[in-house]
Amino acid sequence: MGLGNPGPGYAGNRHNVGVMVLDELAARAGIRLSPGKGARSRAVSGEGRLAGRRVVLARPLTYMNESGGPVRGLLDYHRIPVDDLVVVHDELDLPFATVRLKRGGGEGGHNGLRSITRSTGTKDYLRVRVGIGRPPGRQDPADFVLKDFSAVERKELDLLVGEAADAVETLLVKGLEAAQNEVHART
After folding, report:
1. Does the record carry ATP-binding as a key word (predicted)?
2. Are 16 and 4 spatial neighbours (Cβ–Cβ below 8 Å)?
3. What is the 3-state secondary structure (H, E, C) of 7-37?
4. Is residue 42 within 8 Å of 79, Cβ to Cβ?
5. Does residue 15 carry a pLDDT above 90?
6. Closest among 83, 86, 64 to 122, alpha carbons compared
7. Which top CATH class is 8-186?
8. Nearest residue to 157 via CA among 51, 27, 7, 12
9. Global confidence as pTM
């Protein structure tokens, strides 16, 4: 599940790096994302194989703070246990261009994670945390995440998105602990 906000006005925002990673994974696997119906209507998703495993790649069509409903709908429709949910999201508490993997933990003020936790009833899902860094000076974090990446950051953005997509694939192939050892040593 790649988190972000809908619409072209948000496409380059730091808050949308989860969607950027999801799109990279879909391109790598040749998975076409399309709108769902019924309980899945608030997300685009596609099924296929990634890193040798059957996956459902998806992103909510709702705003970040309403991500939980679409996530719950997709989990129920595809009969995916919450233990297998992988959420790719931006992380203020990591320096820019850092990728970290974990299961569970707090939401750190991230409204998308808070919504998913509410809808699934647990914090115990896998997370691919993509570092966007802290805002400069006294800038409000809510404003910072809704701004596009800086010119300097954009020069490294494709590499960061690729590294985060690699981390997802490593997680799928090797499991959390082995993937953490490998991914955390790289960035």
Report:
1. no
2. yes
3. CHHHCCEHHHHHHHHHHHHHHHHCCCCEECC
4. no
5. yes
6. 83
7. alpha beta
8. 12
9. 0.95
Which residues, 6+ apart, have CB-to-CB distance to 107 below 8 Å?
Answer: 113, 114, 117, 123
Radius of gyration in angstroms for the set of CA atoms belonging to the chain, rounded to a whole number: 15
Confidence of residue 40 (pLDDT cuts 50, 70, 90): low
Non-local CB neighbours of 35 within 8 Å, separated by 6+ positions? 41, 43, 44, 61
pLDDT in tens, 19-30: 999 999 999 999
Query: Which residues are the active-site residues?
Result: 15
Report whether 127 contacts 112 (CB < 8 A): no
Residue-range domain boundaries for the chain: 8-186
How sure is the predictor about 127, in pLDDT bands with cuts at 50, 70 and 90?
very high
CB 119 within 8 A of CB 78: no
Section 85-102 average pLDDT: 96
Rounded Cα distance, 137 and 119, in Å:
34
| pLDDT, tens digit (0-9, with 9 covering 90-100), for 137-160 | 899 999 999 999 999 999 999 999
The verdict on whether residue 125 carries a ligand-binding annotation is no
Q: What is the dihedral of CA 17, 33, 111, 164, to 10 degrees?
A: -30
> Considering only CA atoms, which of 7, 16, 9, 12 is closest in space to residue 112?
16
Is 77 labelled as part of a ligand binding site? no
Distance of alpha carbon 123 from its chain centroid, rounded?
A: 15
User: Residue 120: which of 134, 104, 108 has the closest Cα?
Assistant: 104
